[in-house]
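Input (structure):
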């Protein structure tokens, strides 16, 4: 799998991120670091504990990282989720979190396939 194929598999914007970062090596470096970020785990644990302020912070972090890396599908769902919890509001629609989980799984799966193809 190539980096461009990884972006296609996750519903990302390869051309957009290349336009911003201008180096496939740099994009690949940040894509491969994405799974090490603890924001997703923090989102899940905070939501389970009904700590909506912390869950908002985690969702907002995911949104920002995804926007910068052109992970469009996960950006859109995490953006919608973070807005729903802005100012610590309890999550009224659990389907928003489920959509983030699905989009994160697709993104993580594409990145793992890239890692395997690169042997890292």
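Output (sequence):
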């Amino acid at each position: 799998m190539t980096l461009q194929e990884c972006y296609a598999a996750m519903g990302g914007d390869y051309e957009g991120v290349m336009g911003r970062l201008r180096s496939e090596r740099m994009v690949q470096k940040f894509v491969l670091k994405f799974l090490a970020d603890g924001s997703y785990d923090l989102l899940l644990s905070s939501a389970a504990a009904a700590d909506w302020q912390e869950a908002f912070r985690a969702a907002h972090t995911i949104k920002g990282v995804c926007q910068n890396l052109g992970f469009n599908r996960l950006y859109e769902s995490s953006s919608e989720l973070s807005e729903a919890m802005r100012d610590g509001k309890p999550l009224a629609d659990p389907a928003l979190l489920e959509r983030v989980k699905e989009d994160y799984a697709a993104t993580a799966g594409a990145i793992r396939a890239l890692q395997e193809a690169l042997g890292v």
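Notes: The mean pLDDT is 97. DSSP finds seven helices and no strands in the chain.
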